[in-house]
Amino acid sequence: MDFKLTEDRQMLSDTLRRYLADQYTFDFRNSVIDTAPYHSTEKWAELAGLGLIGAFVTEEKGGFGGAGFDLTCVFEEVGRGLCVEPLLGAMMSVRATAECGAEDLVEAQIGGAQRLVLAVFEPEGEALDLIRTTATKSGDAWVLNGRKSVVYGLPGADGVLVAAKTDAGLGLFLTKDAETLDYAMIDGGGAGEVILDNTTATCLSEDATAIIEAALDAGRLALCAEAVGVMQVLTDMTVDYLKQRKQFGRPIASFQALQHRTVDMAIEIEQCRAITILAASKLETAEAGKYVAMAKNLIGRTANLIAEEAIQLHGGIGMTWEYPGSHYAKRLSMIDHQLGDRYAQLYRLMAA
Amino acid sequence: MELRFTPEEEAFRADVKAFLADNLSAEVARKGRNSEGLTKQDMEDWHAALNARGWLAVTWPKEHGGPGWTAVERHIFEEECALAYAPRIVPFGLNMLGPVLLKFGNDAQRSEILPRILDGSDWWCQGYSEPGAGSDLASLKTRAVRDGDEYVINGQKTWTTLGQHANKIFCLVRTSTEGKPQEGISFVLVDMDTPGVELRPIKLLDGGHEVNEVFFTDVRVPVSNLVGEENKGWTIAKYLLTHERTNIAGVGTSTRDLEKLKSLSQQLVRGGRPLSQDPLFAAEMLEVEIDLEAMRVMNLAMLSAAKEGAAPGLQSSMLKIKGTVIRQRIQSLIKTALGAAATPFPAHELPDNARSVPEDAAGATAAYFNNRKLSIFGGSNEIQRNIIAKDMFRS
Questions:
Q1: Which residue of chain A comes nearest to B290, CA vs CA?
Q2: Are B35 and B363 in contact (CB under 8 A)?
Q3: Best mutation site among A7, A69, A263 for testing chain B: the one with the most B CBs within 10 Å?
Q4: Under an 8 A CB cutoff, do B287 and A301 touch?
Q5: From start to end of chain B, where are the E strands?
């Protein structure tokens, strides 16, 4: 047993932490979240320059990482830094294109020349068997019809990877011609709807169910790690605040009712950290789906607990836009909504 | 990052499994599986078997008869024992007094007492809590007054686990009322057959006799029965409590109980289908399974650090809380799974044809009530939260 990061990963994690602390301050973040594309194209280019996208792909597919722990060490820092850059969509996209064998696309994404997003789920719900979007071959080209909902990172993306039904199953297609409806997300960053109306596309794979599932599980694992980073910062902020805030003539940290609630937050973070490590260790195995679902369920339960407790323990200040803690709480709470919430993960486990 | 055990550790696990297969009697394992109480003889036989293999005093160093295991090996041993429904090693002599004597005792005490713990000549029990001193242990009032070469002890201890089997008791007594309460406490060894020692059983809510009260009326013990220095017993008490917290997470026990729960949910039919197919019940089972998987890894992280020499810090308090909550949750779900059939009592005395649940579930309701103790003893979960908070909020 060994619970330490390798030197390379530790270095990547340290570099990213330093970069976000220096270059991605809370004020900077809040300056980009209101206007399209709801992130900073300049910082995006710098992050790609740090090698983040390459860290999401294995060496044999053209990257220099790609393991579960490569994802978690990056996304934990993304959470700590409350970074709204569209890394989640980019990570899932680069892994999916790599699995489809689209070497040029992988290279373009790793180098930062192209930013893609993955469009899988639809208004009907978050399961592959509910997908209605179709792909039809017409001559040499393919056309897509349907609608994709809440596609993370859509505003300003260079292309959309669309999961659509084919005769062979569920295929994966790249389009740059889709009509998009962009919006900001309540917890920062952008997303949008993709309207596919006889939209032309390139086929990357006609039968990509396993590839899409794997990309989604990598996304869920990344969200777990991001949540752990957010939780840690939020709990540290809560502890600091309780120590500073005085009422009844003493720091409110001296009240046992508040101490025990904060301790429970800390214990649950350790649980979340542990299950995320477990899921990361299984990402390359046949049991990835099971352990990622377990992790995402526990993260979903705990994310809401910690977000709500942190706001409550802060009192009024935790309600303000001005206070960073409230934005950490929002991000944490919304992670449960992404790529299948705690209930969706339980249903996956029950069906297994 | 590597979550797997080493090949050496896996080989050790195989040794433990083989030992259990050869030495654990089917009858004793059956009692464990069915949540039936064990006799004194059952426990002594199990100790003797472990001692013959050199595996009894798991926390002692090799030169005193311990196996010299790492924290990880100890965990593997405890996990496999729990999975096999082996009796738990009675900890008072082996895992509490033994380490205390090794650290604070004198040579005479070590050479006289340790071998008798190992070979089962003595059965020790713990005289810590008093009616007025539970979580606030330092407020204990049992007095020991020096009279020549003897202490004269007056007072009362309570919650003395398995005291009915014991011939010896180690006690925290007050030898001074000067200064802070912690500064006047001493650690003293007492023969249970000394005149003036009286033991009375406490019957618990599950109907079982597990704990006792011990009364001391003018009990005279030689001063040589003092361990460490007079008035320095609090240091010893705290040291002992850290040993009480070994295997605190109870991963093996929870894993075993969860397996029983899953198996019961497949056997028991509710509303025309196996309980395991009821989505509400299945969801609760899954969530506790997920909590247990997370705690398993949290526990491994602590063991991995301990193997490299780190002292178990706040994580042992976190594991105590989480471990007991998970065990209690599983017990609660087992009781829920039984539905109306959870009621008959005492379940083990029912004729087979009066029982509508599997044999190994008959005692589950009583076990559920018994295991409410988990979050109360060994430093209640609220005291553990205080310990963690003290660190989190230190300025």
A1: A294
A2: yes
A3: A263
A4: yes
A5: 124-127, 143-147, 150-157, 168-174, 185-191, 197-203, 209-222, 226-227, 269-270, 273-274
Question: What is the per-residue pLDDT across A108-125, written as a single tens digit (0 to 9) for each?
Answer: 999 999 999 999 999 987
| Three-state secondary structure call for residue A216 | helix
Integer-rounded Cα radius of gyration of chain A:
20
How would you classify the pairing of strands A134-138 and A116-119? unpaired
In whole angstroms, give the CA distance from residue B208 to residue B371.
Answer: 12
* E strand intervals along chain A: 116-119, 134-138, 141-148, 159-166, 169-175, 179-184, 190-205, 246-247, 250-251
Q: How far apart are CA A330 and CA A308, in angstroms?
A: 9
By Cβ distance, the residue of A256, A260, A349 closest to B286 is A349
User: Shortest CA distance to A349 belongs to which of A304, A300, A277, A281?
Assistant: A300
pLDDT in tens, A14-45: 999 999 999 999 999 999 999 999 999 999 99
Decide if pLDDT at B235 tops 90.
yes
Domain locations along chain B: 7-89, 123-231, 248-392
Instruction: Tell me what the mean pLDDT of segment A245-273 comes to.
Output: 97
A349 in contact with B at a CB cutoff of 8 Å?
yes
Chain A residues lying within 8 Å of B391, measured CB to CB: none
Q: B176 to each of A285, B102, B135, B144, B384, how far by Cα in Å?
A: 63, 25, 20, 9, 28
Lowest mean pLDDT among A61-70, B2-11, B305-314: B305-314
Please provide the size of chain B in residues: 395
CA pair distance A12, A317, nearest whole angstrom = 34
Residue B348 identity (one-letter amino acid): H
Query: From residue A266, how far is each of A263, A319, B311, B324 by CA, in Å?
Result: 5, 21, 19, 17
CATH class of the domain defined by B248-392: mainly alpha
The answer to whether residues A152 and A117 touch, using CB atoms and an 8 Å cutoff, is yes
Residue A62 is given by DSSP the state T
Q: Does A8 touch chain B (CB under 8 A)?
A: no
CA distances from B86 to A149, B27, B70, B136 (A): 55, 10, 21, 34
- CATH architecture of the domain B123-231 equals Beta Barrel (2.40)
DSSP B205: T
Residue A215 contacts residue A56 (beta carbons within 8 Å):
no
Q: How would you label B316-355 residue by residue, b for 16+ Cβ within 10 Å and e otherwise?
A: bbbbbbbbbbbbbbbbbbbbebbeebbebeebbeeeeeee
pLDDT 10s digits, B166-194: 999 999 999 999 999 999 999 999 999 99
Nearest alpha-carbon partner for B129 in B237, B35, B291, B13: B237
Q: How far apart are CA A209 and CA A199, in angstroms?
A: 21
- Angle subtended by helix axes A288-314 and A342-351, to nearest 10: 160
pTM for this structure?
0.95
Choose among A243, A271, A281: nearest Cβ to B291.
A271
Q: Sketch out chain A's domains with CATH numbers.
A: 7-115 (1.10.540.10), 117-207 (2.40.110.10), 211-351 (1.20.140.10)
Contact: A350, B279; criterion CB under 8 Å: yes
Strand A159-166 to strand A116-119: parallel, antiparallel, or no bridges (unpaired)? parallel
Question: What DSSP state is assigned to residue A337?
Answer: T
What is the ipTM score, two decimals?
0.94
Residue B270 CA to residue B264 CA, distance in Å, equals: 12
